Amino acid sequence: MSHLHGETAEQRPRGIDPRAPRFAAWITAVLLLVGTFFALLGPAVSAETTFTARLADPGFIVLIVVDALFVWGFAFPQTAPWGVLYRKLIRPRLSAPDELEDPRPPRFAQVVGFVVVTIGVALYLVGVPWALPIAGAAAFIAAFLNAAFGLCLGCQLYLAFTRIGLIRPRGGLIGV
């Protein structure tokens, strides 16, 4: 992915191996698929379903873990487990990438995944039927598209937001 226009080399963050986010997307997709599967098998959400029963639902637990991994991925990318695993075990066995990628779009994609799963988890906890499996499935589809085809929906959203001025290339969201 090329750098964003209007930036000097000193302003751009160091590039990352574009294969690393795809590797992480494979693991994330598997975890999301497992979480979605368990969410579909979990207790049917109704007025009688207790809050404690929702907290103990395996689908809820797996998706909370995935949500925590999303936070780790965007807040502390250098220590995020899938990145470390890629850098230590996979990257040394590969040739150098043809080009490096701007790390900001993949990091933003982690934020998008976090938001989607968090909304599903929150709605599930307040008793909205199907919120958990729908959020898990939506995040799974995005992770799978990235892993299998290199189509990062969160990255595309980042670029679109940058083009319309909602995200500044060197900063965060406008007004934040």
TrEMBL record:
It comes from Microbacterium halimionae. Keywords: Membrane, Transmembrane, Transmembrane helix. InterPro entries: DUF4395. The chain crosses the membrane at residues 23-41, 61-86, 107-132, 138-161. The lineage of its organism: Bacteria, Bacillati, Actinomycetota, Actinomycetes, Micrococcales. Pfam families: DUF4395. This is DUF4395 domain-containing protein. Residues 16-163 form the DUF4395 domain.
